[in-house]
Structure formats: structure tokens, C-alpha cells
Amino acid sequence: MVFTWLQFAIFMFLIGGLLFAGGPLILSALVHPRAKGGDMGMSYECGMKPHGRAWNQFGISYYVYALLFLAFDVDVLYLFPVSVWYPHTDGMFYFIEVAGFLSVLAIAIIYFWKKGVFTWPRKIS
């Protein structure tokens, strides 16, 4: 088998990619602090000692709202190129595509609304 320059370049890029991905992991394992206990296992709250149950302060509602926001925000980003290109199109095909996309988003919002995702609990336990 003849080892060409293209194969050598592919091999070097593969090695470089593995080092780029695994290098920080190996480096962090070598230089991380070895201390255990004390304040190392304590949660960080702006440099102050945490009060109460610091690990259980946030309810899942915050994360659900954040994930829903990200999902719908990314979907809305698809509408920007469509709105720029839409005046240059002919026919109803692209209108039907955009209407279908928006109807899927609307159905998702109605589904989450019916499931009670958008109702904020009074007390998070």
C-alpha cells in the first residue's frame, strides 16, 4: 500500500482533532486541585457561604421555561431567511410551506399550554 500525501494529511487532521478534543480533558485531569472536603464540595453563591438547602433552591420550572424558549427561539430564527426570500417567490408553494411550519409551532404551543407547562406554580417544592 502506498501512503500518499492526501492520506498523510487526513491522518494528521484526525490526530489533531483527537488532540484538540482530548487535550483539555487530559490537561484538566493533570492540573486539577487534589483537595477533598471543606469548601470544595460546597455550591458557589457569589463568593458567600450558601444559606439553607443550596442544592435544591431552583425548581424544574425554570429549566422547562429555558428549554421551551430556546426551542421556539431557534425555530423563529428559521423565519428570517424565509422573510427575506419570500418577496422573490412565485406561487403558493412557499406560502404553504411557511404556513405548515407556523402551524407546527402553533400546535406545539397549544400542546404545551394544555399540558399546563405555562402555568407557574405558586410555591416550588
UniProtKB/TrEMBL annotation:
Function of the protein: NDH-1 shuttles electrons from NADH, via FMN and iron-sulfur (Fe-S) centers, to quinones in the respiratory chain.
Family note: Belongs to the complex I subunit 3 family.
GO cellular component: NADH dehydrogenase complex; plasma membrane
EC number(s) stated in the UniProt entry for this protein: 7.1.1.-
Catalysed conversion reaction: a quinone + NADH + 5 H(+)(in) = a quinol + NAD(+) + 4 H(+)(out)
Name of the protein described by the UniProt record: NADH-quinone oxidoreductase subunit
Transmembrane segments: 6-31, 62-86, 92-113
GO MF: NADH dehydrogenase (ubiquinone) activity; quinone binding
Pfam families: Oxidored_q4
Group of enzyme by EC: translocase
Keyword annotations of the record: Membrane, NAD, Quinone, Transmembrane, Transmembrane helix, Transport, Ubiquinone
Subcellular locations according to the entry: Cell membrane; Membrane
Membrane topology field: Multi-pass membrane protein
